Amino acid sequence: MNALSRLLVAPTLALLLVCTPTNAAPRVGVSPYDGTWSVAIYTLRGDCGSVRVGVRIVGSSVYAEDQSYRARGSVGRNGVVRVAVSGYGRSAAGTGRLSGNSGSGSWRSSRGECSGTWSASRRAAY
Predict the structure, then answer these.
(1) How confident is the model over 37-59, as a mean pLDDT?
(2) What is the mean pLDDT of the chain?
(3) Torsion of CA 114, 108, 38, 64, to 10 degrees
(4) 58 vs 36, 43, 49, 91, 108, CA distance in Å?
(5) Which of 25, 58, 57, 64 is nearest to 41 (CA)?
(6) Domain enclosing residue 57, as ranges
(7) Strand pairing partners for 70?
(8) What's the maximum distance between 2 C-alpha atoms anywhere in the chain?
(9) Are 75 and 37 in contact (CB under 8 A)?
C-alpha cells in the first residue's frame, strides 16, 4: 500500500473536518450519519493503489481514525459528502453521498495523477 492510497481514505468521506484523534472528537450534534464507517478507496486511473480505512462521523464532521493523514470535510443532512485529505506530501478531494448505512462517490488527487471511486458502509452508530 503506497502513501497516496493510505491518504485517499476519506475521500473519501471520505472524505474526512479537523483531524483529531478519534477519542478526542467532540460531540457536536446529532446527525443521521454519526458513527464509525469503513471506506474502500479504489483507484481507477493512475498508480495510487486501493485501500480500506475507518472514519468516524460526529455531527456533520468526518474524523480519520488513522492519525497519519489530515481530513477536512462535511456531511450534509441530505447525505452529501465533500472532503479533502492530505498527508505524506500529497492531497486529494472527494465527493459523494451517504444514504442509510452505505454510500459512494468519487475522488481525485490534487495534481490529477490519480482518480477513482469510493464506497462506504456503516460499522456502528455513534
Answers:
(1) 89
(2) 79
(3) 110
(4) 9, 27, 28, 23, 24
(5) 64
(6) 3-125
(7) 86
(8) 38
(9) no
